[in-house]
Amino acid sequence: MSALTEEQKDVAKKYDLTGTLTQFVDRHLLYPLLENSVCIYPANVIDQLEFDVLKDTYMLKSLQEIYHNIHPDEKDLPQEFATREKEIMDKLVPLNESTKKTLEILCSPEVQQHLKQDKISNRELIKAHGIDDAKILELYEFGKLQYNRGDYVMASDLLNNFKLLSTDQTLVQKAVCGKLVSDIMSGDVDEAKEELNKLREIIDNKTFTGTSIEQLKLRNWMIHNSLFIYFSEKELTDPSHLSTMNELFMSSSYSSTIEASSPWILRYIIASILYTKDFRRLKDIAKAVEIESYEYQDPFTTLINVLTTSFEFHRLASIIEEIKIVAETDFFLNHLNKDILLANIYELSIKNILKVYKTATAKDLQKFIGNVEIPDEFLVVKNDKSDDLYFQTYEKTKALSFKSSQFLSNAFD
Fold first, then answer.
1. Are residues 278 and 408 in the same domain?
2. The domain containing residue 394 runs over which residues?
3. Is residue 412 scored above 60 in pLDDT?
4. What percentage of the chain reaches a pLDDT higher than 70?
5. Does residue 290 lie within any of the structural domains?
């Protein structure tokens, strides 16, 4: 990413969602979000934020590095680091010893051959080997500790073993969430997708054991943390995965959640619609944008509003320039191929402009979208009657806007 001008940084800060996402994204996943923000905020500010995010974890090595960045003149670390290290070892050593036998049994060929999805059968099997509920719970505690230390591969394995055996639905739900984040942090996208599906099954199950508020919070948590999967570099090798995300986010329960508590997710839905040219969803997303416009707006929502509702095409060039900045600085959108994204935005813009204007030269179109090359196939004379409706609507909108301006001008004279 090339260095931003101060003006571009101001735009990036205006639409930066990092602070908003902190309410919904797992603490460990905040770290890469903050790392990405160094392009728009001073390094010392990011260092302090990273330290504040990680200070209650057991990720001592990372904390020590960040502390030295914040306090370059201090050679020695505060005593609290040594105290924290002892605290970690006091928990780590006993759990490592107490779970060793359990893990050996679970990894043995005899047990592996007979483990099933049926927890009752699994529990009967391991009970014969001396593994009781207390031993199973130790797997959860050890997995939680390893997760807190940043050993995500080990945490994922321990939490997975716990899930196979435990009948405690509350802890199983937490283990699924912990394994999901661990798999994301370790880069195991395939495993993360499996956990995402399992979490969705828990949330959407008619027998969900929590309250409606707890279900809403968990669904919100899932929506936000799933962005790390859908916008991962591996998933984006096949853009159709973004269509899968939109099917989920625009389904009834999830769209209601987004509308009620996280309208900024519209940014990622719109970006994925544009990126995959899934324009059949434009009508639905335009409605959502209009409903949420009083609460949330950014260049992506404004683009949809201009192209489908207000027809203020003279704003397109400046909106697209802001989209370029947001696409470069947003942690998730930065993984998209910007050339593909912009080409699709220009194509959609031109098509919608030509629904209003029956004919337009390349020069005419460039007045709206900026000095970009216009493919010849778009410069086709439109004569069908369907365009008349768009043109009439646009002309009436312009006339109404002019009359409103006159009225306000007279009122304040």
1. no
2. 388-412
3. no
4. 90
5. yes
